[in-house]
Amino acid sequence: MTRRPAPVSPPVCLTIATSDSGGGAGIQADLKTMEACDAFGTSVVCATTAQNTQGVESVHVLPTGEIDAQYEAITTDFDLAGVKTGMLATGEVVARVTEYARDLDAPLVVDPVMVAASGDRLLESGGEAAYEDLVAEASLVTPNADECAVLTGIEPTDEASAREVGEELVEMGADAALVKGGHVPTDDETVRDILVTADEHGTFEHPRIESEATHGSGCTLSSAVAARLAHGDSLDAAVEAGLSLMERAIRYPLDIGGGPGAVHHLADLRDRAAREPTAEAVANCVERLVERNVAPILPEVGMNVVGATPYAETPTETAAVEGRITRTMSGIQPNRGVRFGASSHVARFLLAAREFHSEYRFAANCRFDDRIEAALDDLDWAVGEYDRSEEPEAVKTREESTMGWGTRRAFETGDGTPVAIVDRGEVGTEAMTKLLAEDGETLAERLTVLCDALESV
């Protein structure tokens, strides 16, 4: 039987920018990001570059007639729901794109690309003055610190000056400005991005990621925001989603080329795709533990098995047994099924461990006592531990930081990468052993091996 097509209708986005032959930024980054955000990406190529992860070798600007032809082809066929601009190379191109912008009936995100992450200049000096008119047509403009200084004459050095820059850009005519804080120094390892509109300003905070692989980060952010606006999100929601996607893209960069690499434009998409297989791996691990009946290593509070997606950042992105695994008259059983966000304690431990060994994706908690300690010695595993009596007061007053502090101590003081980490507990807190593994099958194997070793002690 002949099957009928079942078409889908994603919102259509347009990027007006420059090709990056290295694939990490420019048109290539824009289209990847739009696809990751469930939007259909179209493009108008203004220039081509010969570049890679190490730098820009050359730039060739297309004739404005060719740029016009591309824009005409797109706008006469597609109903645009969101538009973004990137590297425009020359003042003439900026002026031409500004003409397009005046007739747009869609949100416009202007990423005023002027200098590459490698330090190479991407806009001729005459193009800087032309940007003022394009900024006036923007629904949102997304400059970094260097671009802020060029556009407004103000270099953002803190939140107050960043707000001042945003206010200046809104006075130029932009509906809103997102002043990116990645290049703005802070004392607390926190990046603060400032969103300014005519009515208010807001601050988005996230931990600073010490990475040189930031090639394409600005393109990724602006494309993600444009795609979310195309879906009908509010400005605040679109910016928050775009920043979250960019943060994950920087946290898990692509190790490619001879330079620092590039951001992972599809990390968020890959993470979503991994949810079901991760939950299945947790369920299969639990099934093996029930079959083996690992009751001898169950702690009093019960056991949990946790699996993180490859790009997990929060406990809500880890799958675990809801209600934990507990003893029954016939052995052990999970209280309920596997769902995301079901674990707090073990999930936070696993996420903390991934800061030191990113390949760890699964963890479980077991009891700890003298016999377990002897069994661990017999297995000759790499074992780390931490002593809660050494925990700083600043950590004790913030429960969410305990796992981070303890795990860091275990990794930094242990010999090699720990397979098991021991928390000897304290008054009111049960001593615990936590096992780690790269996959669910290996975790199940380690748990059963520990149970077998315990029985022979």
UniProtKB/TrEMBL annotation:
It comes from the Archaea. Keywords: ATP-binding, Kinase, Nucleotide-binding, Transferase. One of its GO terms (cellular component) is cytosol. Residues 282-447 form the Thiamine-phosphate synthase ThiN domain. Gene3D superfamilies: 3.40.1190.20, Class II aldolase/adducin N-terminal domain (3.40.225.10). Residues 20-264 form the Pyridoxamine kinase/Phosphomethylpyrimidine kinase domain. GO terms for molecular function: ATP binding; hydroxymethylpyrimidine kinase activity; phosphomethylpyrimidine kinase activity. InterPro entries: Aldolase_II/adducin_N_sf, HMP/HMP-P_kinase_dom, PM/HMP-P_kinase-1, Ribokinase-like, ThiN. CDD domains: HMPP_kinase. One of its GO terms (biological process) is thiamine biosynthetic process. This is Phosphomethylpyrimidine kinase. It comes from Halococcus hamelinensis 100A6.
